[in-house]
Design a protein that fits this description.
Radius of gyration: 19 Å
Helix content: 25-40%
Structural class: alpha+beta
Shape: globular
Largest sheet: 6 strands, mixed
Distance between the termini: 63 Å
Amino acid sequence: MMKRLLVLGLSILLVLSLAACGATTEQLPTLALPESSASSGEESSAAQEEPAAVSDADYEDNLDGLCQYMETCYAVTGEPVEMAYDIIGAVAGVRYRFQYNGVTLQVEFYEFDLDNLGERGQECLDSVRETGEFTMLDDQVPALLSDNGKYMMIYTDADDSEENTAQRERVAALFQGFKA
């Protein structure tokens, strides 16, 4: 009897987890590649032109301002979900999950208070500065710091296509230059 209840419980968990994975995510527009990097003469019908230049001066120097700036620049889309930022010594953190070029991407942003940085935050930032990654639950997590050192980004994209690589580089440049 106990085994049947256990199997039933696990079956319910499996169904719920599969249903959660099937949830729809927002689609970020695929931007047109510059002509010099296009692999063929035809451009994707789904591709859009590069968004107009946006100045970070119009945004506050905090996590909300960074998120608004990155959304306006077509770097992320969807609703940000608050993360457990205190584990790495940050004062705030969010995650975006969305589709780009047919692939699900995940982008996380964290804000650190550089004037009141605790030991965990200092270790995390020092590690990212030195090696481009930090340790989280015995895993090495690649990350980038903004030029001002106040923000950290984790960009997860398993696709190494030309379009996704160009987008990753564009997002990194936007992020690193925020409030530099």
